[in-house]
Amino acid sequence: MIDVDRIAKRYAGIGLMLVICLWLSGILLASFRPEWNLMPPIWISTAFCVFFLLGFAILWRWVMKRHEDSLTTLYSVVSGFRMLMALFTLFIVFLVVGRSAMLPYVLVFMVFYLVMVAFHTVYFSRITNRQ
After folding, report:
1. Closest CA relative to residue 114, chosen from 79, 72, 88
2. Which of 31, 39, 45, 93 lies at a 20 to 30 A Cα distance from 25?
3. CB-based contact 2:131 (threshold 8 Å)
4. Separation between Cα atoms, residue 30 and residue 121, nearest integer Å
């Protein structure tokens, strides 16, 4: 039997440390290149990642405790929902800042998004393979 609470807390903890490292790297880059105006994209990307990281940790724990047989469906649904919400977030940013200012938002968001998807995939593939 696996300790679901410990795995969910560890996922959230490692993920938050990863987001903090990305955030600090972005701030460091923004301090060297202030003309790029990277602070708003960094904050939006950080908020998106933290929201999905904590939300998925809570949801995964709930599914593991009550409906463990639906775990593969959860992974698929969360992956699709994350992509849809990423597109929606970038669309809202597009409406607010306009087309000419989208490049920094898309690039920063893409880095955060891909790192978090890679972390999610590696972490839960190891957990699933241990079972």
Report:
1. 79
2. 93
3. yes
4. 29
CA 110/CA 49 separation, integer angstroms:
11
Q: What is the mean pLDDT of residues 20-33?
A: 96
| 64 neighbors 71 (Cβ within 8 angstroms) | yes
Cα 91 from Cα 112, distance rounded (Å): 17
Contact of 56 with 123, CB cutoff 8 Å: no
pLDDT digits 0-9 by tens, 33-90:
999 899 999 999 999 999 999 999 999 999 999 988 888 899 999 999 999 999 999 9
**CA distance linking residue 43 with residue 49, whole number of Å:** 10
> Residue 40 has what DSSP assignment?
H
Which region among 70-74, 102-106, 127-131 has the lowest average model confidence (pLDDT)? 127-131
Distances (CA, A) of 125 to 75, 93, 120: 11, 32, 8
Tally of CA atoms within 13 A in the half-sphere of 34 that contains its CB:
1
What are the residues whose beta carbons fall under 8 Å from the beta carbon of 7, sequence distance 6 or more? Answer: 61, 64, 127
